[in-house]
Design a protein that fits this description.
eight-stranded antiparallel β-barrel, alpha+beta, single chain
């Protein structure tokens, strides 16, 4: 697994690999501790070996991040949807509808600095301080498993969510090129979200660069 901060070209290549191999179909949870299913359509379920999971700190995600949702809305990612349709089982329109639900968010930017997480809506910041609250292994309807790393608010603005939960395909301390973030005030209820997974890439990347990376593989 990657254990160093990715270079710009590495970010695009890894984003392409992950984006084109995940989220082929919306999944329904098999239990109350289920979430967005990163299915690779493998014949055998992808299971998590709990013995391999290591605690992770917010430093893994420390950076300035942008939502990919605006690029879906403005058509920047349309070529990506068309590219997926060429080898997938859905039309470009179907893929776009799927990601419209998945990527949808009004938080266009997230800044993570130390224990501080700042959410930006229409440029207006809401900040919270967060501490580690462990992780959950999630089982999906497909039989695949994944891990969410959870942090609980310990201070900051009242409007900041009580819990944030990261899903990024990793199970050990690792710098990542993108992640899916879930937030809310009910830890258990938040774990049941399986259709909406706001997704964030490094703020330095343009929409065109993200799209090009997604289509590189």
């Amino acid at each position: 697994m990657l254990r160093t901060i990715l270079k710009r070209t590495d970010i695009l290549a890894l984003a392409a690999l992950v984006a084109l191999s995940t989220q082929a179909t919306a999944q329904t949870a098999t239990s109350s501790t289920s979430t967005h299913n990163h299915s690779h359509q493998a014949k055998e379920p992808v299971l998590v070996n709990e013995a391999e999971i290591q605690p992770r700190d917010l430093s893994d995600w420390e950076a300035d991040w942008q939502s990919v949702y605006p690029f879906l809305q403005d058509g920047t990612l349309d070529p990506v949807m068309e590219h997926k349709a060429e080898s997938g089982k859905k039309t470009a329109e179907d893929y776009r509808a799927y990601y419209e639900t998945g990527y949808k968010t009004d938080v266009e930017r997230i800044l993570i600095d130390g224990s501080s997480v700042t959410f930006f809506r229409d440029g207006q910041p809401v900040q919270g301080q967060y501490t580690n609250d462990g992780y959950e292994i999630l089982t999906y309807a497909s039989g695949n498993q994944g891990v969410r790393f959870i942090f609980e608010k310990s201070g900051g603005d009242a409007a900041a969510p009580q819990f944030i939960q990261f899903s990024d395909h990793e199970i050990v301390p690792t710098k990542v090129d993108h992640y899916h973030l879930y937030w809310g005030d009910d830890r258990a209820e938040l774990l049941t979200e399986v259709t909406n997974w706001p997704t964030y890439f490094h703020a330095e990347l343009s929409g065109a660069e993200i799209a090009a990376g997604m289509m590189a593989h």
